[in-house]
Amino acid sequence: MSEGLFRLPRPDRAEIAPGAVHVPGWLSPDGRRELVAACREWARGPVPIRHTRLPGGGVMSVQTVCVGWHWQPYRYTRTAADVNGRPVAAFPGWLGELGRSAVAAAYGDPEAAARYSPDTALINFYDGSARMGLHQDKEERSDAPVVSISIGDSCVFRFGNTENRGRPYTDVELVSGDLFVFGGPSRFAYHGVPKVLPGNGDPAAGLTGGRLNITLRETGLDG
Ligand code: SIN
Ligand code: MN
Fold first, then answer.
1. Total structural domains within the chain
2. CATH code of residue 90
3. pTM, rounded to two decimals
4. For residues 197 and 195, what is the distance between their CA atoms, to the nearest angstrom?
5. Is the CB–ligand 1 distance for residue 215 below 6 Å?
6. Hey, which of 7, 117, 156, 160 would disulfide with 169, CB 3.0 to 4.6 Å?
7. Residue 203 belongs to a domain
8. Rounded to the nearest whole angstrom, what is the distance from the C-alpha of residue 114 to the centroid of ligand 2?
9. Mean of the pLDDT values across residues 203-223?
10. How many CB atoms lie under 10 A from the CB of residue 104?
11. Residue range 60-109, pLDDT digits in tens
């Protein structure tokens, strides 16, 4: 008999740490397809997707393109001086709506959802060997939650504590369509992606290999 028959159902929602919530299978197949299509457009330009260069001379294994504000280690700008000098793509209204729906699903708090006003998205593409080391999202001048949506290959997402890269941390498997929101006491927790699990992406969403992750944030910056 196939192993799948005995697999435990995934919970509707799991609080991994205070303010850090995993909502398996949140984004519908149509939503995934539309988001992948939008990411493909952003990946083309005006600032094309690239492997970000680190100040120490290294290059990140993930490929990144930004919307609303351009992130480079370790600041946000409106133009991508480190890529091609072009202004970053505008942050569309529908992406803010998606972020508010995500906060509502994670926290069940309509007021927190209505307040949420993300103005940047970082879109990361992981091929099978890409990783992201443990880090804090701390270039934002806002403690509004980070909304993270994953599409394609599954990964191990490591969610730690706010003090350091060590234990305690929890490893969560993020699957295509999963939502992870971290805010409140977990907003500045260390997190990363130690491993992308081998797979074939999410062909129905238009991704035949690799993993796409979209994080929405409020920068707290003007203009
Ligand atoms: C990030 O921390 O910016 C990305 C996390 C992820 O890929 O799940
Ligand atoms: Mn991050």
1. 1
2. 2.60.120.590
3. 0.96
4. 6
5. yes
6. 160
7. yes
8. 23
9. 96
10. 17
11. 999 999 999 999 999 999 999 999 999 999 999 999 999 999 999 999 99
Ligand lying nearest the CA atom of residue 130 = 1
Residue ID of nearest Cα to ligand 1 atom 6: 213
- Residue 215 CA to ligand 1 center (angstroms) comes to 7
Is residue 101 included in any domain, yes or no?
Answer: yes
Per-residue pLDDT tens digits for 139-198:
999 999 999 999 999 999 999 999 999 999 999 999 999 999 999 999 999 999 999 999
Cβ(216) – ligand 1 distance below 6 Å: no
Query: How far is ligand 1, taken at its centre, from the CA of residue 34, in Å?
Result: 20
Residue 181 is which amino acid? V
Residue 100: inside a domain:
yes
Instruction: From the CA of 148, give the closest atom in ligand 1.
Output: 8
For residue 23, tell me if it sits in a domain: yes
Structural domain boundaries enclosing 75: 13-217
Is 157 close to ligand 1, i.e. is its CB under 6 Å away?
yes
Closest CA to 85 of 128, 46, 57, 28: 46
